[in-house]
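(Protein data)
===
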Amino acid sequence: MLAWIFPFYNKLRKIASDSSKTLSVSELEKAEISLMILIQKESFKDVNDDKLKKLRPIIDCNGLIRAKTNISNRDDTNDFKFPIILPSDHTVVKLLIMNAHNDLLHAGPLYLRNGPKAYIVLYTCAVYRAIHLELITSLTTEVFLQSLRRFIARRGRPTTIYSDNGTNFKGAERLLHALDWDGILSKAAEEKIQ
């Protein structure tokens, strides 16, 4: 909607613009940048806002506040090296995230032919960028731990595991706290697992 406002505004001001019935990529990008700037102005005082200090904020040529990451010397796009900082609790940001999840089919379960729901656990290797997919039928802690056992049985024991802290991982963490960690850690050290 915002992308249509700019051509209309230009037409009212009699600024030369394309009177096409479709929007161009540059018009859509301009509207997106303007929306991001509005969200940032609503949410942050400026680049020196206390909420942003840990992100090492910088301002780009469009006036957007971006995070200066540790991969800034990498040969990649500026959008990847310097992501735009947006507040996670803003209504428009939540809608943008939901739209991206729906477009990329992240949201919700898969439905099998005979009707039951299924989910996919994604394991990725940080070194080789290999992926391993496990099909599971529920998001319970027990089912996740079974998935992790199958992953280890097929691919071997990882030295370190990081998670996105989903609820099933938190449940797994609670169950794992009840274990004899001294015995597990000594066995893990023997197997060279951190």
Summary: The first helix runs from residue 2 to 12. Residues 110-178 form one domain. Strands lie at 57-59, 65-67, 110-111, 117-124, 131-136. The chain has two domains: 38-106, 110-178.
